[in-house]
Amino acid sequence: MLTSRKIEILKAIVDSFISTAEPVGSKTLVEKYNLPYSSATIRNEMLELETLGFLEKTHTSSGRVPSSLGYRYYVEHLMDDKLDTNLQTALQVVFSDRQLKIDEVIKRSCDILAQMTNLTSMVLGPEANTQTLEHINLFPVDQNKAVAVFITNSGHTENRVFQFEEKVSVEELANCCAILNERLTGTQLDHILEKLQLIKPILAQSIKQYETIFEAFFDAFIKFANTNFYLSGSNNIFNQPEFTDINKLKQLMQMFENSKVWKDIGSNQNALRLDVSDHSSLVWMDDMAVVTSTFKLDQEESGQLMVVGPSRMEYDRVVALMEFMSKAIETIYGKGDSS
User: Fold this and answer.
1) DSSP label at 233?
2) Cα 31–287–128 angle (5° rounding)?
3) What string of DSSP letters covers 131-192?
4) How many other CB atoms are found less than 10 A from the CB of residue 76?
5) Which residue has better confidence, 229 or 281?
6) d(CA 139, CA 19)
7) Considering the entire predicted model, what is its pTM?
8) How does residue 225 score in pLDDT terms, banded at 50, 70 and 90?
9) How many other C-beta atoms can be found within 10 angstroms of the C-beta atom of residue 169?
10) How far apart are CA 90 and CA 96, in angstroms?
11) What is the CATH number assigned to the segment(s) 4-78?
């Protein structure tokens, strides 16, 4: 258990670092937050908080910054419920347009959220979690081009145009399509790529130009599996000092291109997770924080809203908005809605 004094100091450090991105020293706490303790007392408490794992010391300053454990304690015990009324109003305007389909509403909401928080927002649509592949139809256009139509069990369809550098026979395309239908029908969308890799040796035995055809289908399935993955404000990361390192930035941008990373983010062994409510959870990994809020449309269909940013994000504001959005989606678009 932390003493009341340690809690007061930890909260001030987190609040200060969130707003300034600068390591916090005892002088700042005395002058900015008017804490009724001497600098020496505050330094001793900060040292103990560091020993307990709630703070970290940077190499460039004598000040401290919150650790993932410190942020978790802050969210779990010290965070205020702060709903941004301007953003709430902007979202309510979108939700009130009943002519919009749910996917359009969610995308517009993500855009607004990214713009007004200067963070990156995303959505994993409900269909990506529940739909399975029903059938693939392939229509050759000429020896270098074909059109594939992917159909799911819910009737959702996606068209993909294949442009081959080498000539591919109609017979080989038909054989490939037959094998894929036999092996992939009934596969959940987010498991297709994994299963497709297992099919590659089978294609190699039956089709001469299997490499060319396999690559075309693999690229098509990446886009198909990501159909219900929407990302907004990815460039906002450039504005955050935590991601000025080019290697870290490249790694993050690669993550943005793969929806499966975000589906599995909560189970990452290197991450620290906290369930804030029945709807929302938080995951910390390195200098990054991911706020996730789940919305349910019925017993089977659910989706996830996400906000990604540095660990020092304004949790009270972001979490409150995510909760508001997910509950509004459930109320308006849930199958149990009586309106």
Assistant:
1) -
2) 135
3) -BEEEEEEEEEETTEEEEEEEETTS-EEEEEEE-SS---HHHHHHHHHHHHHHHTT-BGGGH
4) 12
5) 281
6) 56
7) 0.71
8) low
9) 13
10) 10
11) 1.10.10.10
